[in-house]
Structures are given as C-alpha cells and as structure tokens.
Write a structure and sequence with these properties.
The chain has about 130 residues and is α+β, with helices and mostly antiparallel strands. It folds into two domains: about 80 residues, F0F1 ATP synthase delta/epsilon subunit, N-terminal (ATP Synthase, domain 1); about 40 residues. It has two helices and eight strands; from the N terminus they run ββββββββαα. A hairpin with a 2-residue loop joins strand 6 and strand 7. It is globular, with a radius of gyration of 16 Å.
C-alpha cells in the first residue's frame, strides 16, 4: 500500500475536503506543485486552477480553487482558499456562460484587464473539470 499524507481543503464557509491522499497536485501561483508523503515543508501562494487529490480508496478527485495558500508540514497538506468546489458540483453550462461573460468584459485600463484575466481564468478552470 502506498504511503499517505493527510489533505484538508478549507474555505471561510466550510471544510470542502478532509481525507488521506497518496498524492496532491497544487495550482501554485507560478505553476503546479506535486506533493507526496515525506515532502519537505512548504508554504506557497495558490493561483486559480485545478487541485487534484489522489486518494487510496476513492481514486482521483479534482477541485476548483481560487487563490489562497497551501501549507505542507509533517505529511499534512492544508489548503486555505476563498473558493473551492468539487468537480461534481460544477455545472459545465454555467462555467461556459461565465466564460462568455468574462470574455465580454471591457479592458479600459490595467485594473479592468486584470479583472477580466482573473474572470477568464476562473471560468476556464471550472470548465476543465466540470462534468457534462
């Protein structure tokens, strides 16, 4: 049996996930980070994207996360994020509508360009894992 670590995903409203995992792939602000048992301590800023947790009993689970922080310490992975949703709870049609709205957002200045970029990234991440 593969060695495990513990993974917990927490938003201000609820604990979204809490279980053992064999592998966790985090969407850091500057790329993906893989975490396995006995990884060195880590604290990183998360970006917007897909977080994958491979569990020893239920297989691979995907979650949409929108920023926040991840801490890895003593085989515990703690994800603190403003928004998180499991792939099962995301409706593809809603995510596609959000992408269409985001693509129509005006780009008048640097702030509005960043707002649009983040809205597009959110919608694309949700579409990537959404069920039909």
């Amino acid at each position: 049996m593969a060695k495990t670590l513990h993974c917990c995903i927490i938003t201000p409203e609820q604990q979204v996930f809490d279980a053992d995992a064999t592998n966790v792939v985090l969407p850091a602000h500057d790329g993906l980070i893989g975490v396995m048992n006995m990884r060195a301590p880590l604290l990183c800023e998360l970006g917007t994207g897909v977080l994958r947790v491979d569990t020893p009993t239920d297989g691979s689970k995907e979650f949409y996360v929108d920023g926040g922080f991840a801490q890895v310490l003593n085989n515990d992975v703690t994800i603190l994020t403003e928004r998180a949703a499991s792939a099962d709870s995301i409706i593809r049609a809603d995510a596609e509508k959000a992408l269409a709205v985001a693509n129509q957002m005006p780009m008048k200045d640097e702030k509005s360009m960043e707002t649009r970029r983040r809205a597009v990234a959110r919608a694309q991440a949700q579409i990537k894992i959404a069920k039909k």
